[in-house]
Each structure stands twice: as structure tokens, then as C-alpha cells.
Amino acid sequence: MQTQHHAIPCDTLVTAGVLVSQNDDRQILADAALAVTDGRIAALGPADALANAYAPKETLDLSGCLVLPGLVNTHGHAAMTLFRGLCDDAPLHVWLSEHIWPAEARLDAAAVALGTRLACAEMLATGTTCFCDAYLYVDAIADAVQASGMRAVISQGVFEIENAGFKTVDAALNAAGALADRLAGNDRLRPAIFPHAVYTCSAKTLTRCADFAHSRNVLLSTHAAETARENEDCLQANGARVIAYLNGLGLLGPQTLLAHGVALNNDDIGMLAATSTSVAHCPKSNMKLGSGIAPVAALRAAGVTVGLGTDGAASNNTLNLFSEMQTAALLQKVAACDPTTLSAGAALDMATRDGADAVGWPELGRLAVGGPADLCALDLNRPQLAPAFDPVSDAVYAANGGEVACTMVAGTVLYRNGAFPGCDYPALLAAFKKTAARLVRPAS
Ligand SMILES: [Zn+2]
């Protein structure tokens, strides 16, 4: 008879009070555990069984927590944390042209790195493990995200307005190519291209971006149909609504992610479904800028993959996907005057697995054996999460994001009980504040 127990080695054994897997069966386990090795989930099952089977180097006790897959933020401009609260309660074109663009013209690589790093801290503290970013100075962004330990799809912004970040479309496309070269083989960072919008890019530039995305096999993302006015202007300038115009230029497809998608009619929705184009729904940005209500229920019913995005911190003003999930579900119910529209489960899907699919990274957004060990954990001892009858309901309707007690990316704990292991957060915050003040109120 064998007397010695042969336990399997692993890096970390994580115990979870309740585990919401978001796998294909939407399996939910009480008293569960995850064995993590080399940043991936080696096993997932009952805590007792895994404790017997595995010999971990270290343990992570989340037995008082509700464990979810790390959330995926499908649209944002991380470094715009530098402009949070700079201008609120103004129309989109005033906000952009009178406030944001002048401040952005004073940006440099160091400022973008600081703004991105602070955004990473904010997202980690609210359970996000991967984000799709679109901005300038992508090298600085890649440095900042790499140092943070997070995952990101980093998109080079392209627009035909002279900006400190680049002077020409050629320069932007060259930077996008260099980024794609640099990130080849990187397991946490992926490159992408982001023509800003149909009203800031010519048809030729949009087509060049699509050609780039196809030739480099990367995600193309763009702001599209954010407002009714955008469609009216596009119709006048180009003879087609935004979605039809993008389709005609070859920009729609399974590797395209459209941010906002608010002003969509049935033809537009049909075109998105037929081309397998995804949408990044940004409900709080749309609400705050008075853009309208995206037809999320109709998009999902048509088979369009819809993820959730916070947009930049200058137009939301937080990067908190728990808040975004709750807002998305409530807003669809208001729009339809129907409480059955966009259930808690659907909102959680959008913040996890659907968002992962939308950014072209389908192994994220679910906890499954063989998949990345990216997770967040909500402290179930908080009053707003008691008595914990339904973890999905609690995550969407009761949690505010402040309950996040732990966030892990690729097996590494990046946030734990208010602290950021591996990051000198006080120094980051001080440098960030100094830089933000300089950008908004330059010394004369
Ligand atoms: Zn945006």
C-alpha cells in the first residue's frame, strides 16, 4: 500500500468562497480552488480535492471572496486619466476641440506613461485585468502596461489633426508597424490600430488602416456612430451613414471593434452581424456626453458580440467596469421599459467573455483549465454583498467595485487589499499629479 501522498507541484493554490467561472456552462462553484502554474490554470474544482492533490509553492486564501474572471475593458484611452475632471457637462465637439485637444497637444511620452500607469492602478483596484487602449505614444504605453503586469491590446491612434504625438498619417502607421514588431511574441500585450473616427480620418486613411490591420493580422478599432449627428454629417460628406460608409471602405469584419455604436438603425445592425463586427458599449460615456442609448439588446439579439468599455477618464469619469456593468443593465431596461431586458448574466458576460471575444482574445474572460489565471475577487464580508444568494446578481447589481480585494493577472497578484505589490504607488501618484497639473495649467 502506498503510504506517501504524491502531490502535484503548482505555483499557487487559490481558494475561493464562491467561484463564477463564466465558462461555456456558466459553472458556479462554492468552496472551490484553482491550481495555478506558469500563469495558467492547471486545475479548477472543489477546494478539498485540490488541497489534497496539489503541493503549491504558495497559497492565496480567497475563501471569503466571490471570485470572477478578470474583467475586460474593451474601449478606453488610459492616459486620459491626466484629464479627468478637466471639462465636464459640455457638448462632445466643444469638449474635444476646446478642452481635450489643446491639453493633448502638450502631452509627451513621459506624461502618457504616467497617465497609463495610474489608469492601470485604477483598473486593477476595480477588477479589470485586460484593456483595449487607443492613444498616442504607444511605446510609452507598452512600457507602462508591461511594468504594471496587466494585459492590454494597445492601439496606435490615427487622425488627421496635427498633434504633438505625430505629424502625419505615415508617421502614425510607421509607429503602429514598429509596435507590432516590438510586441510579437509578447504574451500580455498585443498591438492594434485605431483610426479615431470617420470625421477625423479621410477615406484614404481609413482604408490604409484597414490594409494595415489585415496585413499585420491585428485588431482594428474606431469610434463609430457615437451620435446621430455623426451619421448626419457622414451622410452629407460621404453619401452614406457611418456603418455603411465603413463597410464600403472594407473596415468591417471579425477583427474590427467599433466603440460606442449608439446611433444604429436596423440596416446598420444587420451589417455588423453579417460582417461579424464587434461593438464596445460605453454606457456611462454615452450618458454623460448625452450621446444616446446604444441598442445593445438588439445587437445581441442579432448575434453581434458586445463588450463593455469605460472610454477615457475625461468622459466617464472612472475606469470601473463594475459601475459600467450595472449602468449597462439598468440603461437597457429604461430604454425598453422592460425589466427583463439585459439580465445580470448578460451584463457579466459583456464585462468578461464577450469583451474578451470582442478584442480578439477569447481565452480571457473565463476561468477554465488551460486558460490564463486572470481573476478578481470581491470581499463577501461587505454589507452590500450579504446575504449572497446570487453571486451574478451581487456582482452586477450590488457591487460597486470597491469590494475588490484581490486582482491577479497571469498568476501574479497585482492588487491586494488596497495595495499594489511591485508598484511604488505613492511615488506614481505624486508624479502623476504633478504632470497633470503641468499639462492643464502650463507655466506661462
Ligand atoms: Zn473613446
For this structure, the CATH topology of the largest domain is TIM Barrel
N→C terminal distance: 83 Å
Number of helices: 16
Q: Based on helices, strands and strand pairing, what is the structural class?
A: alpha/beta
- The gyration radius over C-alpha positions equals 22 Å
Strand order of the largest sheet: 5-6-7-8-9-10-11-12
Give the CATH architecture of the largest domain: Alpha-Beta Barrel
Rough outline: globular
The CATH superfamily of the largest domain is identified as: Metal-dependent hydrolases
- Compute the average pLDDT: 95
Number of strands: 15
CATH first level of the largest domain: which class? Alpha Beta
Helix content: 25-40%
Topology:
Blueprint: E1 8-20, E2 28-37, E3 40-46, H1 47-53, E4 54-69, E5 71-76, H2 92-104, H3 109-125, E6 128-135, H4 138-148, E7 151-158, H5 169-183, E8 189-195, H6 203-216, E9 219-224, H7 228-238, H8 242-248, E10 256-260, H9 266-274, E11 278-281, H10 283-288, H11 296-301, E12 306-308, H12 321-336, H13 344-351, H14 353-358, E13 375-379, H15 391-398, E14 404-409, E15 412-416, H16 425-440
Parallel strand pairs: 1-4, 5-6, 6-7, 7-8, 8-9, 9-10, 10-11, 11-12
Antiparallel strand pairs: 1-2, 2-3, 4-13, 13-14, 14-15
Helix pairs in contact: 3-4, 3-16, 5-6, 12-13, 12-15, 13-15
